[in-house]
Amino acid sequence: MGLIKEVLLLPIAPVRGSLWAVQQVLTEAERQYYDPASIRAELARLEERLTSGEIDQETFDRIEDELLDRLEGK
Asked: By the 8 A CB rule, do 36 and 15 touch?
């Protein structure tokens, strides 16, 4: 039955392959998004932007909260 199933599903093989590739990309993107080292680096850059005057305190607080939420895995 396995061989027959594979033969019948052969026409949609490109779709199955594409879905697998999309899933791999999404998994990697999510891993990077929640990576603590990446988030800490973003927090450091954010603080640099605040001290250089590029952003104001309100913007800093908002983005910092978002980054800390990511660090907690929310």
From this structure: no
